[in-house]
Design a protein that fits this description.
Elements lengths: L1 H30 L3 H24 L23 H4 L3 H20 L37 H11 L35 H35 L13 E3 L10 E3 L6 E3 L10 E3 L4 E4 L20 E3 L13 H5 L3 H6 L1 H5 L18 H6 L5 E6 L2 E6 L8 E8 L7 E8 L6 E7 L4 E6 L7 E6 L8 E5 L8 E6 L3 E6 L6 E8 L18 E8 L11 E7 L4 E6 L10 E5 L18 E4 L10 H42 L13 H26 L3 H4 L10 H46 L6 H45 L4 H7 L1
Antiparallel strand pairs: 1-2, 2-3, 4-5, 5-6, 7-8, 8-9, 9-10, 10-11, 11-12, 12-13, 13-14, 14-15, 15-16, 16-17, 17-18, 18-19, 19-20, 20-21, 21-22
Helix pairs in contact: 14-15
Keywords: Coiled coil, Cytoplasm, Cytoskeleton
Subcellular location: Cytoplasm, Cytoskeleton
Protein name: Dynein regulatory complex subunit 7
């Protein structure tokens, strides 16, 4: 094996030497070729390049002649910066590079659509698309995530459908205005009977026409489903591509700018990609999109799949191979040596647009003017900014029955910042059913309220947040004759209560609804299983037949039984018509027991049970009456809330919170006044001396001179005291440092390393303090005379010491 390995190594070494000799002979032969032959090859290359340049110059790039959506009337271009109206030399160079790049692209790919490189801006100046992007960091945390940022941008965009290219535009005929002077028409001599018959005939015709239109609409709907799209794959759209890698993005995905929704790159709605660009470069897709965007590889550093326009890109590009590099003429290398030393990369110019600035008001307003309307098929979505509507309405979705959007099916309205916690209102126009949805925090703990009318004792369903109520009420259903309540988490294990009402003797009015309650006919209550009681003693359902004076009980069924025990009591009055007490008899209690027990057969037990049920019946009737009152209170409260529709304002919203704004302005005014008083007190250098004189008295010449001398002498003394204080501190620090140094000289031999470190640290700090005090003292000596002269000049110009000016005049 070792011999075989040595033979293989020798053969490989021989092959390498032979390849090196062939490469050397080829190089020598190239160098020994005549100069004329090399010049002829150079001439051929130059002619080829000139022919290619001539072909590229003859290529005409078709540019859309459509005017931009904005005009000079909508945008005041006089207020725009110079960068919007002109191009810098670097931008002109970039446009030339883009034109050359576009010609090469059209020459190599004549079947593809022209590139979108340099459209016209607001001032009708061509600008490269990459320079229209300017990355900006905004002070709003909501814009740091792609979903909230995309939704914010989509609210500002409004999609305007383009005209159908398959249908030519038809000009509307102008209406001819009627002339002022015309001949009066002749008198109408038609019969009324004939007119009525004609009206009936027209109504029948309209009914038939409506039927025909309905059938036609149904036929059109069926045809729309199967109708092929003639422009499928021919439309061009722009969207956002987010590449994976940075900011923990796991995979590539698309963002539709008009809706703000994200889509996978495997989505079938995206048929292909022509080009990509960002604020640094521009790339052309060279991959086949036969399978939409599913097989595309988004590696922008691969020039085979993505052809870039500028060399100055972030990702590294593929380098030339050694064989391609060896074929370059050595003489050309010498001639182009200076050219290769130059940097061929061209960096993208700075963006010509202004830095985007979004004020808090504009960020909250979102849509232009705070409102946006989006029309869908059989639906319309309206959006408003918060606090724009007085009732807190921020969004409304209207669904229609027909394509013309005339017959409304349902309306959904979303609210924000409502004091009554109303979040959503759903109105069904077909059934006239209204449903209100509330957030937690309503005074009555409302969750959902479904109704057709706000009048009491009508069909309605009210759901509550049971955790916010003491009685654990979850839901209440009401009709003109019944009321049903559902409970959860009660200590008495009540889960259901159903009350049936009889007809009223008097008519119902809003004022008499409380004083004239509906007569109760029947109350049915159901209970959850109480594990603390045996099943045969735990009541599952009890029915109070108020009109029939009967009480029915049904107990829970044991797990090993197939039926449950039942008991019925005949509720009679305690005394008869003559005033005699009624004695409990066996016929007043009818029972069915699965396992009869002795104590349940006794009349005392039955009597006590019936008395307890009478008290429970009275309590249940009272609770039903309270439920009716609560419904009336809820309806009254909801009417007041809908009429007031008060909005909540945060204490941090100083713009809308009037109380907070007034308090803040008052505090700022008080602080400003206090600051002015302090400033006046600090600057009034004559105040201590003027206080010695009678108020309001005019100063004499002698008093003015005396005040000036006292003020100057006092200021001079304060300057001297300050210098003495600094000098005293300086001497004190110097003496303490000398004492410390003397102590160190005496105990230097016995000191530990820790003590020496402490001594050096103290000396360093002491020298720092001494140096600072020395600088302060020198500075004070320099500024003291200047301060004295400045004060003397102020005193001379002070209007209160006007007599001094007369002395020196």
């Amino acid at each position: 094996m070792e011999v075989l390995r040595e033979k293989v190594e020798e053969e490989e070494e021989a092959e390498r030497e032979e390849a090196a000799e062939r490469a050397e002979w080829a190089r020598m032969e190239k160098m020994m070729r005549p100069v004329e032959v090399r010049k002829e090859e150079t001439t051929l290359k130059q002619e080829t390049l000139r022919d290619l340049e001539k072909k590229l110059s003859e290529i005409q790039i078709t540019v859309s002649a459509e005017l931009p959506a904005f005009t000079k009337d909508t945008i005041d271009i006089s207020k725009l910066p110079v960068s919007y109206k002109t191009n810098t030399p670097k931008e002109e160079h970039l446009l030339q590079v883009a034109d050359n790049f576009s010609r090469q692209y059209s020459h190599l790919c004549p079947d593809r659509v022209p590139l979108f490189l340099h459209p016209l801006n607001e001032c009708e100046v061509p600008k490269f698309v990459s320079t229209t992007l300017r990355p900006t960091l905004m002070p709003y945390p909501e814009l740091y995530n792609w979903d909230s940022c995309a939704q914010f941008v989509s609210d500002f965009l409004t999609m305007v459908p383009l005209p159908d290219p398959l249908k030519p535009t038809i000009k509307k005929e102008e209406k001819v205005l009627p002339k002022k002077y015309t001949i009066k028409p002749p008198r109408d001599l038609c019969s009324r009977f004939e007119q009525e018959q004609e009206v009936k005939k027209q109504q029948e015709i309209r009914a038939q026409e409506k039927k025909r239109l309905r059938e036609e609409e149904e036929r059109l709907m069926e045809a729309e489903k199967a109708k092929p799209d003639a422009l499928h794959g021919l439309r061009v759209h722009s969207w956002v591509l987010v590449l994976s890698g940075k900011r923990e993005v796991p995979e590539n995905f698309f963002i539709d700018p008009f809706t703000g929704h994200s889509y996978s790159t495997q989505d079938e709605h995206f048929l292909g990609i022509e080009s990509l660009w960002n604020h640094k470069n521009y790339w052309i897709n060279m991959q086949d999109c036969w399978n939409c965007c599913k097989d595309l590889i988004f590696d922008l550093g691969d020039p085979v799949r993505w052809e870039y326009m500028l060399l100055g890109t972030d990702k590294s590009q593929l380098s030339l191979t050694e064989e391609d590099d060896s074929g370059i003429n050595d003489e050309d290398d010498v001639e182009n040596l200076g050219k290769e030393d130059e940097d061929k990369s061209f960096d993208m110019p700075h963006s010509w647009v202004e830095q985007i600035e979004i004020s808090p008001e504009a960020f909250e307003t979102r849509c232009p003017n705070g409102k946006k309307v989006i029309q869908y098929k059989r639906a319309k979505l309206e959006k408003w900014a918060p606090y724009l509507n007085s009732n807190g309405l921020v969004s409304r979705l209207t669904t229609y029955e027909d394509l013309q959007c005339t017959n409304i099916l349902e309306i959904k309205e979303w609210y924000q910042n409502r004091e009554d916690m109303l979040e959503l209102k759903h109105i069904n126009k077909t059934t006239d059913l209204k449903t209100d949805y509330f957030k937690p925090g309503h005074p009555q703990a409302l969750r959902v309220h479904s109704y057709k009318s706000m009048q009491p004792e009508m069909d309605r369903v009210i759901e509550f947040y049971e955790m916010a109520r003491v009685d654990g009420l979850m839901k209440r259903e009401e009709t003109p004759r019944t009321m049903t309540e559902y409970y959860q988490g009660r200590p008495d294990f009540l889960s259901y209560r159903h009350a049936s009402f009889g007809p009223r003797v008097k008519k119902l009015t809003l004022s008499s609804a409380e004083s004239n309650p509906r007569p109760i006919v029947k109350i049915t209550e159901r209970f959850f299983r109480n594990p603390a009681k045996p099943a045969e003693e735990d009541v599952a359902e009890r029915v109070f037949l108020v009109a029939e004076e009967r009480i029915q009980l049904r107990y829970h069924c044991r797990e090993d039984h197939i039926t449950a025990s039942k008991r019925e009591f005949l509720r009679r009055t305690e005394v008869d018509s003559k005033g005699n007490k009624i004695i409990m008899t066996p016929d007043m209690c009818i029972s069915f027991e699965v396992e009869p027990m002795e104590h349940t057969k006794k009349l005392l037990y039955q009597y006590e049970a019936m008395m307890h049920l009478k008290r429970e019946e009275k309590l249940s009737r009272h609770q039903v009456w309270e439920s009716e009152l609560e419904v009336l209170e809820i309806l009254k409260l909801r009417e007041e809330e809908e009429a007031a529709h008060t909005l909540t304002i945060s204490i941090y919203d100083t713009k809308r919170n009037e109380k907070s704004k007034e308090y803040r302005e008052a505090m700022e005014r008080m602080m400003h006044e206090e600051h002015l008083r302090q400033v006046e007190t600090q600057l009034d250098y004559l105040a201590p001396f003027l206080a010695q004189l009678p108020p309001g008295e005019k100063l004499t010449r002698w008093q003015a001179v005396r005040l000036k001398d006292e003020c100057l002498s006092d200021f001079k003394q304060r300057l001297i005291n300050k210098a003495n204080l600094i000098q005293a501190r300086f001497e004190k620090e110097t003496q303490e440092l000398q004492k410390k140094q003397q102590w160190y000289q005496e105990n230097q031999v016995t000191l530990t390393p820790e003590d020496e470190d402490l001594y050096l640290s103290y000396c360093s700090q002491a020298m720092f303090r001494i140096r600072i005090l020395e600088q302060r003292l020198n500075r004070h000596k320099e500024l003291a005379p200047l301060k004295y002269l400045a004060l003397e000049e102020k005193l001379y110009k002070d209007p209160r010491l006007g007599e001094l000016q007369k002395i020196f005049a």
